[in-house]
Design a protein that fits this description.
single chain; 263 residues; alpha/beta; Rossmann fold; 14% strand
Length: 263
């Protein structure tokens, strides 16, 4: 399948590992230039090396930034324009939230999740979308999560951020559509990343069981019996940021092994 992404320019937040890096690898493999954003300089350097091994002709840029800072999104957008000339794709993926018993979570645990993921995504859209609107084209993809519709009592900071992002994406899609800019959501269930290992530990502690028991419990909840692989998210991302199906906007696509009970 030809995605038509050769020469496109993409920003990927949380792009140094996990789902973000898988998306970056998929885009570079399709001929896109990428700017990856992350906080860990060592991980960013390793990510850049792995991306350049895929296609050394592609432009690969890494920026170490903390998206909890209100001014960072504007700096990223300006730097992308400086480096690429225009921005075709934005993939919002930077986000983490503490798991655990609701009774043990503090106000700050909720605020941390909302500041990084919810406000981080919103700020990136506000910073980057105007460049796309000027060009009358662009694709934005928010990596959210099934907790937005299938809440867990041990993942409430992240689940509430996810629910708000679904609302935001649907609402802003109507504003962006008039400018030829599309915005969609992929909501993965638990995905096989380093982040998933941390969540398994936190949820195991909240449930009073071992990590191995927690992982078995998570797998058992999935009708297909296994967690999602990051490459699955990346393949769907390629489709959504391409123009193969140009009528999709404001839509959530769940990649969850059949986990979600609702629609």
């Amino acid at each position: 399948m030809e995605f038509g992404l050769t020469g496109k320019n993409a920003i990927i937040t949380g792009g140094s590992a996990g789902i973000g890096l898988s998306c970056a690898k998929a885009l570079v493999s399709e001929g896109a230039n990428v700017m990856i954003i992350g906080r860990d300089r060592v991980k960013l350097e390793n990510a850049v090396n792995s991306l350049r091994e895929i296609d050394e002709k592609r432009k690969v840029i890494a920026i170490s930034e903390d998206l909890t800072s209100p001014s960072v999104a504007e700096r990223i957008g300006a730097e992308a324009i400086s480096q690429f000339g225009k921005i075709d794709i934005l993939i919002n993926n930077a986000g983490s939230a503490k798991a655990g018993s609701f009774w043990d979570l503090s106000d700050q645990d909720f605020l941390d999740a909302w500041t990084l993921k919810l406000l981080g995504y919103i700020r990136m859209v506000k910073a980057v979308a105007p460049y796309m609107m000027k060009e009358k084209q662009g694709r934005i993809l928010n990596i959210v999560g099934t907790g937005g519709k299938t809440p867990s009592p041990t993942f409430l900071p992240g689940g509430t951020a996810n629910a708000a992002l679904l609302n935001f994406t649907k609402g802003i899609s109507k504003e962006l559509a008039g400018y030829g800019v599309r915005i969609n959501v992929i909501s993965p269930a638990i995905t096989a990343t380093e982040r998933a290992e941390t969540l398994a530990l936190q949820e195991a502690e909240a449930n009073g069981i071992s990590v191995e028991e927690q992982k078995a419990l998570t797998n058992a909840k999935m009708p297909l019996g296994q967690v999602v692989q990051p490459e699955e998210i990346a393949y769907m991302a390629l489709l959504l940021v391409s123009d193969l199906i140009p009528s999709i906007t404001g839509t959530e696509i769940a990649i969850d092994g059949g986990l979600q009970a609702g629609i």
